[in-house]
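For reproducibility, we list the full input for the adenosine monophosphate complex.
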Amino acid sequence: MKQRIVSGIKPSGDLHIGNYLGAIAQWIKMQDEYEAFLFIADLHAITVPQKPEDLHRRTIEIAKIYLAAGIDPSRVTIFVQSQIHEHAELCWILNSIARIGDLEKMTQFKDKSSGDARETAGVGFFDYPVLMAGDIVMYDADFVPVGDDQVQHIELTRTLGRRFNKRFGDEVFIMPKPLLQESGARIMALDNPDKKMSKSSTSENSYIALSDEPEKARKKIMKAVTDSGTKIIYSDDKPALQNLITIYALFTDKKVSEIEAMYVGKGYAEFKTGLADVVVAFLEGFQEKYASISDDEVLAVLKEGAEKARPLAQQKIKEVKKLMGFVM
Ligand code: AMP
Ligand code: TRP
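The corresponding predicted structure, in tokenized form, follows.
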């Protein structure tokens, strides 16, 4: 039997090449070998305010991005989280064993709720990791392919799963492991190599959206900050260049050493031009596919995905509720 992977992306902003390289590119490589459940985490998106029309549009856009990137709906179960009500139900159930102390340790919460922001931070935002834990244990995931910012959430998933199994005396949940790209698990902002590339960034030049006009993306790369020095070498004391070389390597499947060799005796300008060509070629191909997929096609894929995921979720909730003593 194939092992299972489960992962998702929130429809809360424009997806960028960091999401693609850190998460989606891994999924594509794994879809043959694993049984994959990939969803659009709309219940997670609403933990921060979303305009209804944006949530609606982005949910469809993300599904289209999965398809345009090469996720094959005949092999992979692609669905919208909120269409499987059991996700919300399992979150509530896991809330009964999750501790405030567990959630207060989460970096994502700590980062966004320090000082005065704590008073107004949403309860859903605080509870975000419990909903995510439910998403993962719902389908008996063996692995969760994500970027490195999600690893702490997967550790919490294991904690909650273990606590539940112990308390209710059964191995109803299995323990998932995070899967990270060897490099690319953390693509950094183009204008600041100390910050990760993020869709919530206020500076447009910090990220390349999958929907960016290719020529706009080229300009962003030419403007990207670089380190002092002139040589194209991958090293920890040149974090900006390191990030650009990583992006180059991932888009071309080339080794870092090959890229270094290609640019011996050449400077940053030539390297950036080369990288811009690579990114532009990727965006052109990707966007052409994206444009060829209709909303109706996406909705049909999502419907079919929900129909495949729902019986598994229902079965899991049934087992869980029975163990806990609910009258059914
Ligand atoms: P999110 O946009 O937070 O829903 O993230 C979707 C996926 O993209 C998650 O697996 C993240 O870990 C991954 N991701 C987000 N930003 C980056 C980044 N800068 N580098 C690598 N992976 C990322
Ligand atoms: N929290 C994830 C993110 O921000 C999205 C997500 C929700 C997820 N549920 C998940 C990822 C389950 C993997 C598995 O990227």
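The chain has two domains: 4-180+294-324, 188-290. The longest helix spans residues 295-324. Both points were considered when choosing residues for closer inspection.
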